[in-house]
Amino acid sequence: MANYVNxxxxxxxxxxxxxxxxxxxxxxxFKYKKxxxxxxxxxxxxxxxxxxxxxKKIEGSIKLLKSExxxxxxxxxxxxxxxxxxxxxxxxxxxxxxxxxxxxEQQTDVISGxxxxxxxxxxxxxxxxxEIDCPFIALSLKSV
Length: 144
Prior knowledge:
Blueprint: E1 15-19, E2 22-24, E3 27-42, E4 48-65, H1 66-78, E5 93-98, E6 107-112, E7 115-116, E8 131-138, E9 140-143
Antiparallel strand pairs: 1-2, 1-5, 3-4, 4-8, 5-6, 6-9, 7-8
């Protein structure tokens, strides 16, 4: 039987995000993934003889409190853009720090060339806060 006495999985308190030079305190959620287009290669017979790979892509989203969206939009307007989704992808990098804990080494994921594709404001009756989901596409993802 495995010994799990001193192990700990990553917890929410160990992750933080910064981008556009701002550390996001109102971060409510995030996800990102790297994928590769792949398909079966067929030749003689009815069974695949290999797997062909194609384009790679990185995409994800962050979920923010409205106050954080307001801060990002203010920074974008100061730089001459209408809102943060119009900031050129060449200048946006997100850095996710996964802090060291119980023997787990610190890890940092750096996502570069981020283009936010949309954002939407909305609330429903009884809501205690406004969360805004901001999907993005990106050029690269590196773990350091």
